């Protein structure tokens, strides 16, 4: 067999895309060029890798096995390239981070200077809810994850970046009685929840349960931005992280409502699987954070510390 790395890349892309046309588009090649390379690759095997039914291509079981091997080979080739460049002091490759949705107000500030210093690094940052973030971490699909609640079911290591402060928030035009109790604020306007799977939702439910009160009116929204807009519109109240409402607090559009048991404090933490074999990029990033974390907090989040 004399297959090339180019053929492995093309075949793997066809398997991922489940289409020669889509694979050619993603590879920025013509469809005939991809088809020729696929044929040349398949001709080296006695067992079919694909079959075409109608106008659709299907990958055989053997084809999937070859694709899995191809992925391992290509990853090893990339690792060799990255190690060679790292040995020369030049970092290149991908840094993959999964971030809980509210963490989008945090993570970019801890990446900016590192990415500027290493312009050939490709950043892949997935912003989603806590459940999906932990799934990607558990499946070892990312280098790091940013969370506000440290998981107890995963064997992880972490570096704490910034405090996470959650308060009861409402529209600034709403007049709040001094010394309000937890039951009263939900009598007239809804308490706005994030969707299930959200870390903020988890903290909110734990607070409600520990204070033993019922929520008379309830609204559920699927993003921190949606919650914020609902608060600005005066639709209700919510327990939410202060990190995402800096301008609204400073512009007196939203207010922090003092209430017993709040604020709740946790930590924005970057986590990774214990005993993970870090790439040169992720090792370099950890070193960067250890050195620069405090400076970043002081420069970018001074307002937050003073609340």
Explain what this protein looks like in three dimensions.
- The protein has helices at 5-17, 20-27, 31-42, 61-87, 112-117, 130-138, 199-210, 224-232, 246-250, 280-300, 302-305, and strands spanning 50-53, 56-59, 93-100, 121-128, 144-147, 156-171, 191-194, 218-221, 238-241, 254-257, 264-273.
- With 307 residues, it is of the alpha/beta class.
- The protein folds into 3 domains: 5-87, Winged helix-like DNA-binding domain superfamily/Winged helix DNA-binding domain (Arc Repressor Mutant, subunit A, Orthogonal Bundle); 93-162 and 267-305, Periplasmic binding protein-like II (D-Maltodextrin-Binding Protein, domain 2, 3-Layer(aba) Sandwich); 164-265, D-Maltodextrin-Binding Protein, domain 2 (3-Layer(aba) Sandwich), CATH 3.40.190.
- Strands 3, 4, 5, 6, 9, 10 and 11 form a 7-stranded mixed β-sheet that branches. Strands 1-2 form a two-stranded antiparallel sheet. Strands 7-8 form a two-stranded parallel sheet.
- Helix 1 (5-17) crosses helix 2 (20-27) and helix 2 packs across helix 3 (31-42).
- It is elongated and about 80 Å long.
- The termini are far apart.
- The mean pLDDT is 86.
Comma- or semicolon-separated keywords:
two-stranded antiparallel sheet, 307 residues, 3 domains, D-Maltodextrin-Binding Protein, domain 2, 7-stranded mixed beta sheet, 11 strands, alpha/beta, Arc Repressor Mutant, subunit A
